[in-house]
Amino acid sequence: WGVICSYVARGGAAEQGGAGGLGVLFKTMVGVLPHLALEALAYILAAMCGVFLSKALAKYAIASSAFSQVGMAVLRLLGIALLLLVAGAAVEAWIAPELIGWLFGLKSGS
After folding, report:
1. What is the Cα–Cα distance from 26 to 89, expressed in whole angstroms?
2. Residue 53 CB: number of other CB atoms within 10 A?
């Protein structure tokens, strides 16, 4: 993302005669942030599930009720992470292009 945002800011600054690079970068970040936050939260939640499951494997027997409780909690969290990831993809596909178009004053393609 750093490379993409830098490239967009540099291109925007070149189009504006060398000025406004930070403004273009800010607008780009505002357009990307909604889906970035959802996807990052999904990845962090999935990573936490891995930590919880590995700790449960080290601490409890697989056949124990405590391990089953942790396993069910991990499955619920993974489900939430998957929903967040799908929501982030939907925002990236449909909302972010509209938001960026609005921020930069571009006509909508739809």
Report:
1. 21
2. 18
State the Cα angle at 35 between 106 and 15, rounded to 5°. 30
Residue type for position 82: L
> Do residues 36 and 1 touch, judged by C-beta distance below 8 A?
yes
| CA atoms of 59 and 69, how far apart (whole Å) | 13
d(CA 2, CA 32): 11
Residue-wise pLDDT for 1-23, tens only, equals 566 666 666 666 666 555 566 77
CB 9 within 8 A of CB 28: yes
